[in-house]
Fold:
Amino acid sequence: MAKIVWSKPWYRSRGIWGAILGATGTVYGLWATALPCGPEQTAHNYLSAAVTMWGAYLAFVGRRDASQPIHIFWRRKVEVDD
Structure:
């Protein structure tokens, strides 16, 4: 049986924020490779990996727990399956 729910804004979606963090961690990791070798670069590489992994976890949990569709511009009623 289907039910009617309101869509939620994109910025309230854990899945979207996980994707943004994953992309940010990847870009940050690419920037960190330009640093000179040493402990500073190692720290930046580990931080990049941690941000990317946190983003992947957040995207997974957000998708698993999703109960409403998201919207970009305006709110709307959507029919979803139970």
The mean pLDDT is 88. The beta strands are 2-6, 8-9, 70-71, 77-81. The radius of gyration is 18 Å. The chain has one domain: 2-81.
